[in-house]
Amino acid sequence: MRNRSGGGWFPLFCALLALTALGLVGSNVAVIAVRGFHSLPACLTQPEVRFALGLSVKSACISTALCFLLAIPTAYTLTRSVFPGRRAAEIVLELTMSLPYIVLGLSMLILFSSPAGKWLKEAGFPVVFHQNGVILAQLIVNLPFAVRLCSAAFQGADRKLECVAGLLGASPAQQFLTVLLPLSRNALISAVILVWSRALGEFGATLMLVGVTRMKTETLPGSIYLAVSTNNLDAALASAFLLLVISALSLTAANLLGRTGKQRSRYV
Amino acid sequence: MCNRQQDEVLRLENVSVRRGTFSLNQISFSVSAGEIMAILGRTGAGKTLLLETAAGFCRPEAGRVLCLGEDVHKTPVHRRNIGYLYQDLSLFPHMTAAANIGYGLALRRLPREEIRTRVEEIAQRFGILRILNQYPGTLSGGEQQRVALARALMVQTPLLLLDEPFSALDPVTREELCCLVRDVCQEFQCAVVLVTHDFREATTLAHRIGVLLDGRLRGIVPAVELFRADWDDEARSFLGLKPNTRE
After folding, report:
1. Residue A170: which CATH number?
2. Would residue A101 count as lying in a domain?
3. Mutate to test the interface with B, among A168, A186, A267 (most CBs of B within 10 A)
4. Of A174, B83, B136, B200, which has the maximum CB count within 10 A?
5. Which of A167, A180, A265 to probe by mutation at the B interface, max B CB count within 10 Å?
6. What residues make up the domain containing A145?
7. What is the distance between the alpha carbons of residues B118 and B154, in angstroms, rounded to a whole number?
8. Residue A16 domain flag
């Protein structure tokens, strides 16, 4: 092993600690990969696992779409406008990112059990113990994260280009659509992938808001929880393996897009 | 094309701007249609800040900036009718050279065919016809400069602000582009404010030249009188002239 800053005991010490960290994380991944892979074929035939996979993918897709529908304008406002209370808004968003998701779930449960929540249920949009709640929990949990990713993407784009577009006659909406959005495209696509895979793995807030009911509100993480509760380790590992594969694929896609973005920016 | 030969396009009235510890103090001048004015100054003299203030990107602490009689700060950016060429050119990296040049026309909802014809016309004049389908990242510095100039001139704004537009070019290309810009500006009758530290560029291109040092405009003279005018000692030192002899 060679160290760019020179030799000595310190790089070796750090490398040993890095190996320990890798071992800790890697052993868990290895357990899921090896044992889950064996359990997968049998479990995939079970309707519960297929339902959980379907609900997870469907809810993650819807919540991610809703998330970015809100996150992109929010990030645009936070990065491109000056208004009183902007820092306070940023703090509120950051605070919810650092909160345990079970706390967010609890607050949502209280909110949607209130008269307003009951009114929503009567209006045909039940949330508590309903699949709508899965989407909503994923949305609330991921929204601050998506806003942060979009803000970083917008901050990375050269503002001067928007000024140039403005002087050439582009209205703020045209500047956004023709300059800012295309320039942030790769960063936004990787953000979508990351948020989608986080939505797929969301558990804490979902558990509080909708619980885990077989074939009703059972997502893949919920399926793992139920399988372990009923001592069905094979089913739990198979669901975990599915989540691992999806996460690995989305991470690879996000990294590939990031690399494409860097290669492109090298030319400009 | 407009006929405002002597019409005033840009007016700065006692403009003072502060950015950090640096400030521009009491800047006043005006530029008419068809006139090219150069602002000469050292690096850090406040040239770019002056242009950004004229474009309305920096709000003055005092004074006002009028473009065609209207306060630029009261006009939305996209209605200011100002062309601006940044020193780093700021071409849109995700658009081809043709799309960059035609961007302003596309925003004005001109028919696609007309945009193509006009882009090709100006590209022909700037000698960049063959690179129209290329992205800025694949162009040389000189080609990028031509594309940026063509884009700024394409929309025929009454005011064009140029921030060291030829700094990255070799002397021959610089001379060639100077002539081209002068001709096109005369033809379009647009007022031009050009900031530079290059005396030759300023004298070749401009009708009038101002000297900006340490945030203060030391005077504005006709280009032919640049080295004959009665400057203060600091300006004389900058221009490479002997200090004034006081009797």
Report:
1. 1.10.3720.10
2. yes
3. A168
4. B83
5. A167
6. 37-265
7. 8
8. no
Residue from the list A170, A185, A267 with its beta carbon closest to the beta carbon of B137: A267
Q: Rounded to the nearest 10 degrees, what angle do helices A115-122 and A101-113 cross at? A: 70
Q: What are residue B191's DSSP bridge partners?
A: B159
**Contact yes or no for A137/A206 (Cβ under 8 A):** yes
Cβ neighbours of A136 (radius 10 Å): 25
Q: pLDDT-derived band of residue A2, with 50, 70 and 90 as boundaries?
A: low
Candidates B77, B92, B137; nearest CB to A179: B92
Q: What is the pLDDT of residue A49?
A: 86
Among the listed residues B218, B222, B227, the one whose alpha carbon sits nearest the alpha carbon of residue B41: B218
- Residues of B in Cβ contact (< 8 Å) with A185: 94
Q: DSSP secondary-structure letter at A177? A: I
Question: Tens digit of pLDDT for each residue in B61-94?
Answer: 999 999 988 899 888 988 888 999 988 889 999 9
Q: What is the predicted pLDDT for the residue at A55? A: 94
Closest CA to A108 of A128, A131, A93, A91: A128
CA dihedral B58, B64, B69, B73 (to 10 degrees): 30
Q: Do B93 and A268 touch (CB under 8 A)?
A: yes
Nearest CA in chain B to A167: B78
Is the residue at A53 inside a domain?
A: yes
> CA separation (Å) from B80 to A170, B58, B84, B93?
11, 14, 11, 24
A165:B103 CB<8 A: yes
pLDDT digits (tens, 9 = 90+) for A78-136: 999 888 888 999 899 888 888 889 999 999 999 999 898 889 888 888 888 899 999 99
Please state the domain count of chain A. 1
Residue where the block lists tokens 């291109």? B205
Q: Which of A158, A163, A164 is the best residue to mutate to test the B interface, defined by the most B CB atoms within 10 Å of its own CB?
A: A164
pLDDT one-digit tens code per residue, B105-158: 999 889 999 999 999 999 998 889 999 999 999 998 888 988 998 999 888 889
The answer, yes or no, to whether residue A15 has pLDDT greater than 60, is: yes
Q: Is residue A158 part of a domain?
A: yes
Contacts of A171 in chain B (CB under 8 A): 76, 78
Domains of chain B (ranges; CATH) run 1-81+158-247 (3.40.50.300), 90-156 (no CATH)
Q: How many CB pairs under 8 A join A and B?
A: 62
Determine, for residues B88 and A267 on separate chains, whether the beta-carbon distance falls below 8 Å.
no
